[in-house]
C-alpha cells in the first residue's frame, strides 16, 4: 500500500513520507476546521437552513480536498473562502436582491468561467491585464469587510443614532462574551498556538454558555433527516439568468475567484518549492469552485491555512486527502456545531480580516493614479456593504485617472473593457 502511495504521489521525489503527510493533514485540518461553523453561519444569513449549510460546507470541503489531492497532488486545502462567503450572503443576496438559490447559480456559472480560464492560457492574460494595485485592494477591502462583519456579529459595533456606527454596550452579555473570546483568540494567534482558531471556538462557546447565550435544549431535538440535510444540494436556480443583476454578480465573483486563487496557489506552490505544480493545482481549484454551487455553498478557495500543513512537512496531495477525510468525519458532529454562537465566531472574522488588511502595505502610495482607485475599493466595499460596487468603482476610476494624466497606454485593452462593463451596469441600474 505504501509503495502505491509513494508511486502515485511521488513521496520520495518530494522528500516526504506517508507518516509526515498524514501528520501534516491532521495539522492542516485542525487549523481550518473552524470554517465549518463560520461559513455555515454566514450562509445562513442568506436564508439557507443552518443544518443544510453545514452539510454543504463539509461536502464541498471534502470534494475540494480530494480533487486537489488526486489531481493537483499539492498540499493545498480547498474549503469555502472567507470574504467570498460574505460576497455571497451580504452582497449578492442581501444587497443585490438575488435569492440564495440564484446566488448558487451565480457560483456555478462563475465556476464554469473559472474552469475555462484555468484550463487555458487566459489565466496569465487576465492576471497581467489587471494592475497589481487593484488586485491587492480587493483583498484589503474584503479584509475590512470581514472585520466589520465580525464586529457587528459580536455586538461590538451597532447602528448608531447620531452616527452610522456606534460602540455596543459592554453591559450586554453577547458583547462581553465576544470581547473575552477575542482577547483569548488574539493571544493564541499571536503566540502561534497550533489549532488556535479551533481552540477559540471551543473556549468561546464555553464562555457564551456561562453568559446564558446557548440553548442546550436543541441537543435533545431529533436529528435532521436526509431531506433537510441536503436541502441546498442542487438547489441552484437559473430563473434570473437573463437579468443584468445576475451577470454583474457573475462578473464580480469571477474576478475575485480568479485573482485571489492565482495569488494563493502561486504563493503556496512556491512555498514548497514546486512551481511546476501550479497548473494542475489551479485547475483543481477551479473545478472545486464550480461544483460548490451544486453542493450548495459559496465557492471553495485555496485557503491560507494550507501553510500550516506545509510547515508540518506536507508536500503532496496525500496531505490534502487526509484533511478531506477528516472533514467527512466532522459530519457526525453537526449537532455540536449548531451550538456555536456568534460571539465565538466573531473574533475569528475580526482576526482574519486584520490579516487581509495587512496587504495594504503592498500599495504604491506615491502614485495617486494607482493608490486612489485602490483605496476607494478598500473603503467602499465595507461602507456600501457591497463587494461588487466597491470593485466596480475602483476599476472605473483607474483608467479615468490614467487617461487624465496622459498615461492611457498603461491601461490594458482588457481593463478598458472591464471598466466599460462596470460603468454600463451603473448606468442601466441607477438611471435605467
Mean pLDDT: 88
Specify the biggest β-sheet.
2 strands, antiparallel
How many structural domains are formed by the residues? 1
In helices, the fraction of residues equals: 55-70%
Count of individual helical segments: 20
Arrangement of strands in the largest sheet: 1-4
Unreliable spans are none
Distance between the termini: 64 Å
**N-to-C SSE series?**
HHHHEHHHHEEHHHHHEHHHHHHH
Based on CA inertia axes, which overall geometry fits?
globular
Strand content: under 5%
Number of DSSP strands? 4
Radius of gyration: 21 Å
> Which structural class should the secondary elements be placed in?
mainly alpha
Organism: Planomicrobium stackebrandtii
Subcellular location: Membrane
Protein name: AGZA family xanthine/uracil permease-like MFS transporter
Pfam family, one: Xan_ur_permease
Amino acid at each position: 500500500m505504501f509503495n502505491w502511495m509513494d508511486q502515485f504521489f511521488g513521496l520520495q521525489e518530494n522528500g516526504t513520507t506517508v507518516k509526515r503527510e498524514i501528520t501534516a493533514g491532521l495539522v492542516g485540518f485542525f487549523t481550518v476546521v473552524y470554517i465549518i461553523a463560520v461559513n455555515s453561519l454566514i450562509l445562513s444569513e442568506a436564508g439557507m437552513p443552518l443544518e443544510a449549510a453545514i452539510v454543504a460546507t463539509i461536502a464541498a470541503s471534502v470534494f475540494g480536498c480530494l480533487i486537489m489531492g488526486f489531481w493537483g497532488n499539492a498540499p493545498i486545502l480547498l474549503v469555502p473562502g472567507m470574504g467570498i462567503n460574505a460576497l455571497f450572503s451580504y452582497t449578492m443576496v442581501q444587497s443585490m436582491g438575488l435569492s440564495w438559490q440564484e446566488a448558487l447559480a451565480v457560483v456555478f456559472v462563475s465556476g464554469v468561467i473559472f474552469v475555462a480560464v484555468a484550463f487555458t492560457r487566459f489565466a496569465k492574460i487576465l492576471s497581467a491585464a489587471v494592475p497589481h494595485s487593484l488586485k491587492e485592494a480587493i483583498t484589503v477591502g474584503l479584509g475590512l469587510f470581514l472585520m466589520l462583519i465580525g464586529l457587528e456579529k459580536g455586538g461590538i459595533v451597532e447602528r448608531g443614532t447620531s452616527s452610522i456606527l456606534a460602540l455596543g454596550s459592554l453591559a450586554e452579555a453577547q458583547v462581553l462574551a465576544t470581547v473575552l473570546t477575542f482577547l483569548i483568540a488574539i493571544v493564541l494567534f499571536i503566540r502561534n498556538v497550533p489549532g488556535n482558531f479551533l481552540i477559540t471556538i471551543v473556549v468561546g462557546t464555553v464562555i457564551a454558555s456561562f453568559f446564558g447565550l446557548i440553548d442546550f435544549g436543541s441537543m435533545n431535538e431529533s436529528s435532521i433527516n436526509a431531506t433537510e440535510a441536503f436541502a441546498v444540494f442542487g438547489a441552484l436556480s437559473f430563473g434570473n439568468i437573463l437579468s443584468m443583476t445576475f451577470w454583474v454578480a457573475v462578473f464580480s465573483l469571477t474576478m475575485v475567484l480568479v485573482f485571489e486563487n492565482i495569488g494563493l496557489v502561486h504563493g503556496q506552490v512556491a512555498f514548497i518549492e514546486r512551481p511546476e505544480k501550479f497548473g494542475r493545482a489551479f485547475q483543481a481549484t477551479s473545478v472545486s469552485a464550480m461544483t460548490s454551487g451544486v453542493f450548495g455553498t459559496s465557492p471553495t478557495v485555496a485557503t491560507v491555512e494550507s501553510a500550516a500543513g506545509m510547515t508540518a512537512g506536507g508536500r503532496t496531495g496525500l496531505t490534502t486527502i487526509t484533511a478531506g477525510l477528516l472533514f467527512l468525519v466532522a459530519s457526525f458532529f453537526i449537532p455540536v456545531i449548531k451550538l456555536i454562537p456568534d460571539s465565538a465566531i466573531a473574533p475569528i472574522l475580526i482576526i482574519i480580516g486584520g490579516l487581509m488588511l495587512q496587504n495594504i502595505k503592498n500599495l504604491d502610495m506615491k502614485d495617486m493614479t494607482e493608490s486612489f482607485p485602490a483605496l476607494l475599493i478598500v473603503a467602499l466595499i465595507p461602507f456600501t456593504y457591497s463587494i461588487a460596487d466597491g470593485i466596480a468603482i475602483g476599476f472605473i476610476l483607474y483608467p479615468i485617472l490614467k487617461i487624465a494624466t496622459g498615461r492611457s497606454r498603461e491601461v490594458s485593452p482588457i481593463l478598458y473593457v472591464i471598466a466599460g462593463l462596470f460603468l454600463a451596469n451603473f448606468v442601466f441600474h441607477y438611471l435605467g
